């Protein structure tokens, strides 16, 4: 059993390949996970520290984020934001690559008849992680898809939001807008008198016919670092220090989220 | 004709059906009759509006109140018609995703099929087609149709065969699912069968 | 639609648990395992009885197969939580410091490894008291909510998720009212 590890190291690169080719963080990855300790040390400070916002964030910038941690943050930002955020194509591609190589590694290990119990456990853990990461990525993609389909008509006429979509997302939005328009035309509009037969009404007291992101929707924002002051709707300014949590309309903190200075929780 | 209903009643009726559908979480049958009635109403209202405009010689004054009422009704009815259809397509989309994008499975259900208008069936097919295009962008390993409600804890799941589903291809080989029997299988291999009701998670 | 209704504009407790399970925790392994490169990072080797640090989800997996014991985080014990509860009760407005995902992590560990905890029942009870004290402050905060901003520092991720529907809706409505006021003015 003692030499076994070496064999696999050479053959499947199961050990440190991922790190060597720079897929892991620059620092030894062990650091990335030790934030529970960091949490604890801060929390153990004496009483009287009730007022200042705590800095019990999972991953501060002193410790570099792994791609997976970054992906989780983008996933949550996307879920909570009323707007569509910039697509993380490179990050996603990197993770999908990593998934593929882990899957290959498993297949090599599984085909080996010498597999012991502890090896089975290792395989099971790697498989479980693969399923976790796939779940996360799926959820991220579908969160975006949900918004893309809702705002499809808006997207086709708004260049700004288009820059935040991948090419296939843009194409899907365009197809979806067409399908929807066509359906309404065939089912309703083509039978109506000409003056009523269009989808560009702007009546008073009715919501617009084109659904677009509502940036006034309140979000819970968490400052990942000391942030520059932001203008609040009531005219005052808010200075969020690292760890601060606020509930406020999305447009107030939109730029902070875009710059990675804050996240949505 | 002792019709005491007011303008907009039919529009409201249509919306009430949408509301009922949501509340019971069931797609009601496409109300072709009511839709046609409303469309007829729209044409009649349009004729009425036009004749009012032609009869109105005071072009510099405010429009006749009747015209305002009619125009408002036209706008509202139109909105109701569009909302009704849009609401239904949104329910159809929900159903589509709930069944993991298994369109043939959805459309082969005679009960559901009977509740859809022909246009809606077309819509589903086109929706599916667009998604198939989108989905092809991702590697075969990442099936975006798979569930996103239950984060994976165990990679295996215990199932009981609720409906005949025959022999299934999995990563580890083939499994011959016999009705009534229990199996321990990889979730990823059988998720679509669970979602479509062939297998029951236990 | 691509997102099931429960997931639109919110997060489920299961998803929060999944995210919290990425955090690293200490275990006493009962089996040996070679150092392995996971997507989250490299973990191991596991050499019983030496303690090791692995992600919580991995620890849960091993624990359920009786292949490890979990070393509770330094905040998951009666003494620390009692101290926090006292602190919480001493201030009627601010929330005391707790790890951001304390609720999720505590739940997972209590669920599958209560035998690795000292006084799990008392821990449960203290967590419940903390939860209630903080919920009461949230309710008071709801009374102060306006159209602009509400500070909720030190609130945990699960707690935020629980108050989300009501708080977001309330601020939304107040926001719309404020906007229509300015329109009229």
From TrEMBL, chain A:
Its main location: nucleus. It is found in: Nucleus. It comes from the Eukaryota. One of its GO terms (biological process) is double-strand break repair via break-induced replication. GO terms for cellular component: GINS complex. Keywords: DNA replication, Nucleus. The keyword NAD does not apply. It holds the Pfam family Sld5. Residues 104-183 form the GINS subunit domain. Residues 213-265 form the DNA replication complex GINS protein SLD5 C-terminal domain. Signal peptide: none annotated. Belongs to the GINS4/SLD5 family. This is DNA replication complex GINS protein SLD5.
From TrEMBL, chain B:
It is found in: Nucleus. GO terms for biological process: DNA strand elongation involved in mitotic DNA replication. GO terms for cellular component: GINS complex. Residues 157-202 form the DNA replication complex GINS protein PSF1 C-terminal domain. InterPro entries: GINS_A, GINS_bundle-like_dom_sf, GINS_Psf1, PSF1_C. The keyword Aminoacyl-tRNA synthetase does not apply. Its main location: nucleus. PANTHER family: DNA REPLICATION COMPLEX GINS PROTEIN PSF1, PARTNER OF SLD5. Required for correct functioning of the GINS complex, a complex that plays an essential role in the initiation of DNA replication, and progression of DNA replication forks. GINS complex seems to bind preferentially to single-stranded DNA. This is DNA replication complex GINS protein PSF1.
TrEMBL record, chain C:
Coiled coil: none annotated. It is found in: Nucleus. Keywords: Chromosome partition, DNA replication, Nucleus. GO terms for biological process: chromosome segregation; DNA replication; double-strand break repair via break-induced replication. It holds the Pfam family Sld5. InterPro entries: GINS_A, GINS_bundle-like_dom_sf, GINS_Psf2, PSF2_N. Residues 75-177 form the GINS subunit domain. One of its GO terms (cellular component) is GINS complex. Residues 12-71 form the DNA replication complex GINS protein PSF2 N-terminal domain. Transmembrane segments: none annotated. Component of the GINS complex. Belongs to the GINS2/PSF2 family. This is DNA replication complex GINS protein PSF2. It comes from Coprinopsis marcescibilis (Agaric fungus).
């Amino acid at each position: 059993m003692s030499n076994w590890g070496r064999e696999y190291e050479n053959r499947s690169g199961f050990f440190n390949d991922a790190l060597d080719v720079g897929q892991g963080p620059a620092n030894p990855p062990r650091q990335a996970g030790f934030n529970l300790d960091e949490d604890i040390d801060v929390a153990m400070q004496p009483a009287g520290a009730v007022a200042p916002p705590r800095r019990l964030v999972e991953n501060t910038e002193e410790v570099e984020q792994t791609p997976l941690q970054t992906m989780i943050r983008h996933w949550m930002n996307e879920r909570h934001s009323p707007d569509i955020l910039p697509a993380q194509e490179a990050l996603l591609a990197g993770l999908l690559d990593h998934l593929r190589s882990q899957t290959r590694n498993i297949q090599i290990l599984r085909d080996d008849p010498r597999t012991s119990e502890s090896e089975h456990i290792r395989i099971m853990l790697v498989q479980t992680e693969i399923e976790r990461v796939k779940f996360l990525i799926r959820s991220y993609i579908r969160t975006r898809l949900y918004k893309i389909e809702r705002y499809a008509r808006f997207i086709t006429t708004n260049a700004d939001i288009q820059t935040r979509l991948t090419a296939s997302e843009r194409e899907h939005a365009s197809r979806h807008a067409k399908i929807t328009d066509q359906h309404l035309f065939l089912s309703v509009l083509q039978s109506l008198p000409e003056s009523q037969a269009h989808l560009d009404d702007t009546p008073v007291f009715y919501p617009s016919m084109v659904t677009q992101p509502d940036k006034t929707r309140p979000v819970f924002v968490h400052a990942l670092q000391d942030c520059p002051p932001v203008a609040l709707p009531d005219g005052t300014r808010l200075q969020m220090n690292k760890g601060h949590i606020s509930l406020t309309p999305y447009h107030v903190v939109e730029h902070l989220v875009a710059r990675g200075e804050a996240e949505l929780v | 004709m002792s019709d005491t209903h007011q303008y907009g009643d039919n529009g409201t009726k249509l919306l009430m059906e949408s509301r009922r559908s949501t509340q019971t979480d069931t797609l009601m049958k496409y109300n072709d009759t009511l839709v046609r009635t409303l469309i007829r109403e729209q044409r009649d209202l349009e004729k009425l509006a036009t004749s009012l405009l032609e009869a109105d010689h005071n072009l510099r004054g405010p429009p006749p109140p009747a015209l305002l009422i009619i125009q408002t009704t036209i706008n509202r009815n139109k909105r109701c018609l569009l909302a009704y259809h849009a609401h239904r397509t949104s329910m159809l989309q929900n159903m589509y995703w709930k069944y993991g994008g298994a369109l043939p499975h959805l459309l082969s259900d005679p009960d559901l099929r009977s509740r859809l208008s022909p246009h809606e069936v077309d819509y589903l097919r086109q929706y599916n087609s667009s998604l198939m295009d989108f989905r092809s962008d991702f590697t075969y390993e990442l099936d975006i149709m798979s569930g996103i409600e239950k984060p994976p804890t165990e990679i295996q799941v215990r199932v009981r065969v609720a409906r005949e589903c025959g022999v299934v291809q999995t990563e580890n080989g083939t499994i011959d699912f016999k009705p009534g029997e229990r199996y321990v299988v990889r979730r990823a291999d059988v998720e679509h069968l669970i979602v479509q009701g062939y297998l029951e998670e236990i | 639609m691509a997102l099931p209704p429960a997931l639109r504009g919110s997060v489920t407790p299961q998803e929060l648990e999944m995210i919290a399970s990425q955090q690293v925790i200490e275990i006493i392994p009962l089996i040996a395992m070679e150092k392995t490169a996971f997507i989250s990072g490299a973990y191991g080797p596991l050499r019983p009885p030496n303690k090791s640090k692995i992600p919580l989800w991995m620890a849960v997996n091993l624990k359920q197969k009786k292949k490890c014991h979990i070393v509770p985080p330094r905040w998951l014990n009666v003494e620390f939580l009692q101290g926090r509860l006292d602190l919480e009760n001493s201030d009627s407005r601010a929330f005391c410091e707790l790890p951001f995902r304390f609720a999720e992590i505590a739940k997972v560990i209590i669920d599958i490894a209560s035998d690795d905890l000292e006084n799990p029942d008392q821990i449960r009870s203290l967590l419940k008291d903390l939860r209630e004290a903080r919920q009461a402050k949230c309710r008071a905060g709801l009374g102060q909510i306006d159209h602009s901003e509400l500070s909720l520092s030190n609130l945990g991720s699960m707690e935020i998720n629980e108050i989300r529907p009501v708080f977001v809706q309330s601020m939304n409505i107040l926001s719309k009212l404020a906007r229509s006021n300015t329109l009229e003015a």
